[in-house]
């Protein structure tokens, strides 16, 4: 890929894709494409070999994703009184788009730590670079090269997220206000990643451990902190920020619990990852925690053993995954997690309705909450 192919295909005039409110994902996409094209051009000139690696990162960032984090941040900004157009609106758009680079860092590293082969229906970054090494018959171990490339590109995404946020053109007072949630979000994301691997290493089956991972790894940096950041950019009062954070914390955990169910029961064509991957990777999700607790409590020790044996078995076949699926339904774990999702969604909506937000932010955030937590089948 040459630098020109990273140039955004959408015209640079704001009117070409409509108002930001009406075409937010397209505006985020353009902001990311612009930024990555600029950084790629400079890197390709200074270090052509690394420039080709940057192309892979850009393709990964621009190759899919729901853009949830910028969306939550934008609608918190709008709900707290931020304008939907003008110079500052576009600065805010660039700042919240940088959240997608933090997400890219998390995904690239997460896939490596979990030894995942697919993401969004394509080879993960470490797998892609290992295959490149193998095809070109370079020296050394392909897997080690792939791991090194993924670590470095994930780090680059995080560094560029900071650069994009800092260079967004925000008013200094507003940038200073948003710096606190931005910094907290980065640390919480990394803490969540560590808690995830720690829980697997310890074999911790407790619901408390599973919920801690969901809270730190997903809820904080996917929903709560983006909302906090957007509200801070608009100069929202503390009670509004607190309500939005409460909404975000509950919806974020509910979103992770829904993702856990999809990881076990979802369609690969929809999720982009093989069904049962979390099971093979040994993820101690709340779904598995509840399933094991309920099986033990019911005296179904043989069934509990089947589930425990399956956790972390990377050679698990389709029939074995189906067996665990059936047990999770039979012991009531799926129903209990569904009930937990519903309770969290209700609590989140109570927090959202406790404050008055500028139209149409409340309705949009309500819709986002439904989309993030609804059943898909």
UniProtKB/TrEMBL annotation:
Protein name as it appears in the record: Geranylgeranyl diphosphate synthase, type I
PROSITE patterns, alphabetized: POLYPRENYL_SYNTHASE_1 (PS00723), POLYPRENYL_SYNTHASE_2 (PS00444)
Highest taxon in the source lineage: Bacteria
Homology family: Belongs to the FPP/GGPP synthase family.
Cofactor dependence: Mg(2+)
Entry keyword annotation includes Transferase: yes
GO BP: any one term: isoprenoid biosynthetic process
PANTHER family linked: GERANYLGERANYL PYROPHOSPHATE SYNTHASE, SHORT CHAIN ISOPRENYL DIPHOSPHATE SYNTHASE
Organism expressing this protein natively: Actinokineospora iranica
Coiled coil regions, renumbered to chain: none
GO molecular function: metal ion binding; prenyltransferase activity
Alphabetical list of InterPro entries matching this protein: Isoprenoid_synthase_dom_sf, Polyprenyl_synt, Polyprenyl_synt_CS
Lineage per the UniProt record: Bacteria, Bacillati, Actinomycetota, Actinomycetes, Pseudonocardiales
Transmembrane parts of this sequence: none
Keyword NAD included in the entry's annotation: no
Key words of the record: Magnesium, Metal-binding, Transferase
SUPFAM superfamilies linked: Terpenoid synthases (SSF48576)
One Pfam family recorded for the sequence: polyprenyl_synt
């Amino acid at each position: 890929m040459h630098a020109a192919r990273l140039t955004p295909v959408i015209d640079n005039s704001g009117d070409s894709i409509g108002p930001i409110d009406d075409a937010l994902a397209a505006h985020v996409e353009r902001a990311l494409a612009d930024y990555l094209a600029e950084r790629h051009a400079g890197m390709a000139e200074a270090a052509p070999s690394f420039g080709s690696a940057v192309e892979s990162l850009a393709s990964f960032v621009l190759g899919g994703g729901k853009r949830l984090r910028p969306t939550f941040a934008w609608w918190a900004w709008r709900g707290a009184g931020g304008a939907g157009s003008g110079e500052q609106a576009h600065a805010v758009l660039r700042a919240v788009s940088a959240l997608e680079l933090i997400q890219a860092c998390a995904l690239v590293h997460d896939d490596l730590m979990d030894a995942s082969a697919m993401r969004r229906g394509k080879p993960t970054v470490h797998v892609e670079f290992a295959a490149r090494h193998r095809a070109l018959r370079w020296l050394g171990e392909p897997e080690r090269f792939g791991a090194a490339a993924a670590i470095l590109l994930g780090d680059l995404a995080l560094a560029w997220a900071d650069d994009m946020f800092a260079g967004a053109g925000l008013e200094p007072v507003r940038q200073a206000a948003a710096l606190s949630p931005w910094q907290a979000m980065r640390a919480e994301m990394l803490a969540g990643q560590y808690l995830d691997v720690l829980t697997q290493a310890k074999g911790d089956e407790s619901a408390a451990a599973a919920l801690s991972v969901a809270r730190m790894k997903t809820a904080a940096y996917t929903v709560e902190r983006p909302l906090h950041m957007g509200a801070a950019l608009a100069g929202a009062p503390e009670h509004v920020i607190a309500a939005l954070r409460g909404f975000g914390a509950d919806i974020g955990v509910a979103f992770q619990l829904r993702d856990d169910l999809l990881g076990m029961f979802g369609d690969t064509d929809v999720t982009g990852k093989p069904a049962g991957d979390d099971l093979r990777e040994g993820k101690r999700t709340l779904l598995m925690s509840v399933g094991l607790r309920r099986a033990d409590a019911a005296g179904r020790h043989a069934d509990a053993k089947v589930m425990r044996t399956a956790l972390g078995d990377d050679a698990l076949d389709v029939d074995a995954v189906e067996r665990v699926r059936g047990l999770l339904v039979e012991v009531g774990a799926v129903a209990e997690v569904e009930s937990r999702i519903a309770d969290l969604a209700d609590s989140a909506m109570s927090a959202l309705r406790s404050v008055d937000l500028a139209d149409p932010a409340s309705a949009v955030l309500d819709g986002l909450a439904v989309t993030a937590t609804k059943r898909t089948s």
